[in-house]
Specification:
- It is a single chain.
- α5 (152-171) links the parallel β5 and β6 (175-180).
- The chain is α/β, with parallel strands linked by helices.
- It contains 11 helices and 12 strands.
- It has one domain (2-188, 219-248, 283-302): NAD(P)-binding Rossmann-like Domain (Rossmann fold), CATH 3.40.50.
- The strands form 3 sheets. Strands 3-2-1-4-5-6-10 form a 7-stranded parallel sheet, with helices on both faces. The protein has a 3-stranded mixed sheet with strand order 7-9-11. Strands 8-12 form a two-stranded parallel ribbon.
- The structure holds nicotinamide-adenine-dinucleotide (NAD).
- Residues 6-7, 9-13, 32-36, 38-39, 59-61, 81-85, 100, 104, 124, 126, 157, 180, 182-183, 189 line the site of nicotinamide-adenine-dinucleotide.
Length: 337
């Protein structure tokens, strides 16, 4: 199979490409990435001379270019990871988020509409599209829950998901969609919580926590996410949405405590900063559908996964150090928006 992966230089995309080629050695991957600041070429350095891997620097919003790539490489299936992915950035520069996260997937849908060879286009979405819930809620978001992202990031992802669904309903485009909780693991850009806090500890910087640091997230190891996408590509039913999560919730405060404990740090290393606007309280996914229908469940427990992830950043300083300067996120900018 010729698999077109978009955003393959990003955190989840690069983990997915490495995972897929290991598990499916006869397939070929075409990685289309426009190379924003979040793209890290060296994630896929090991594939440099691998005949099964091709990289094309291109924008998923460019219809002509995407059509050319799909024809040239005889693409059978598309997996769309490409996105602007940082909530805080979306508050400063919303336009680029709606462009890639909505018009990007709509362009890929249009390319698929005009190409009968493509048998499936899978879109990667996020739990944030369901809006948020109270901290003490007993509910979970299932796949039927109304969409309602609160930030430009989450609402642009919700718009993209709706566009994919509309192409299925209107034109019968062979889509599947997955809606995943927060991921952690190796190769995550050091502007995101876990690598940010680990790099801050290693470089003597404080851990910056929002005032509402009791807000929770559901954490899934990126390798379990890759396995779930694999299950959907192989067994998922066209037109369906699948939630992917672990059920393990930790607040930002709890994550910071785990990291402080790992480094024998103390409370004084925490600094409270104002929360960003539209900071969501909590999302928790109901993942019965993917477990019941596709027999997927997470294999990495959080306690092991978080320690091996911290170890990875400790042992791969050369990977994240040059990226720190590239980060465009400033968590103290809110008074100006
Ligand atoms: N990270 C998480 O915890 C998480 C959780 C659920 C869902 N998701 C979703 O998973 C996907 C991947 O997330 P990530 O954390 O790996 O993101 P990331 O920011 O690490 O990587 C995004 C990649 O997309 C590329 N890209 C951006 N705009 C593009 C464009 N117009 N054309 C081509 N390439 C473009 C970037 O260069 C980058 O390599 C996103 O769709 C995100 O919404 C992420």
């Amino acid at each position: 199979m010729n698999l077109l992966v978009t955003g393959g230089y990003g955190f989840i995309g690069s983990n997915f490409i490495l995972y897929w080629l290991k598990e499916h050695p006869n397939d070929r991957i075409i990685n289309v990435d426009v190379c924003t600041y979040a793209a890290v070429q060296k994630n896929l350095e090991s594939l440099k001379n691998d005949e099964r891997y091709v990289m094309v620097k291109a924008d998923i919003c460019n219809y002509e270019m995407m059509e050319l790539v799909v024809d040239l490489y005889q693409v059978d299936c598309i997996v769309n990871f490409a996105a602007e992915s940082h909530n805080s950035n979306s508050i400063i520069n919303p336009t680029s988020f709606y462009r890639t996260n909505l018009l990007g997937i709509q362009t890929l849908m249009e390319v698929t509409r005009n190409n009968s060879r493509i048998k499936r286009i899978h879109h990667i979405s996020t739990c944030e599209v369901y809006g948020d819930m109270p901290l003490d809620s007993d509910n979970k978001f299932d796949e039927e829950h109304a969409l309602g992202g609160n930030s430009p990031y989450s609402s642009s992802k919700a718009c993209g998901q709706l566009a994919a669904r509309a192409y299925y309903k209107t034109y019968g485009i062979p889509i599947t969609i997955s809606v995943c909780s927060n991921n952690y693991g190796p190769y995550q850009f050091p502007e995101k919580l876990i690598p940010l806090f680990v790099s801050n500890m290693l470089e003597g910087r404080p851990l910056t926590l929002y005032a509402e640091s009791n807000y929770k997230r559901e954490w899934l190891h990126v390798e379990d996410h890759c396995r779930a996408i694999e299950a959907i590509l192989l067994r998922g039913k066209i037109g369906e949405i699948y939630n992917i999560g672990s059920g393990v919730e930790k607040s930002v405060e709890e994550i910071s405590d785990i990291i402080l404990k790992y480094f024998n740090g103390n409370e004084n290393q925490k600094v409270i900063v104002p929360s960003r606007p539209s900071h969501d309280r909590r999302y928790l996914l109901d993942c019965n559908k993917i477990t019941r229908e596709l027999l997927w469940k997470p294999m990495i427990n959080f306690e092991d996964g978080i320690i091996s992830t911290i170890d990875w950043y400790v042992n791969n300083k050369d990977w994240w150090k040059p990226l720190i300067e590239k980060s465009t996120v400033n968590e103290r900018k809110w008074e100006n928006v």
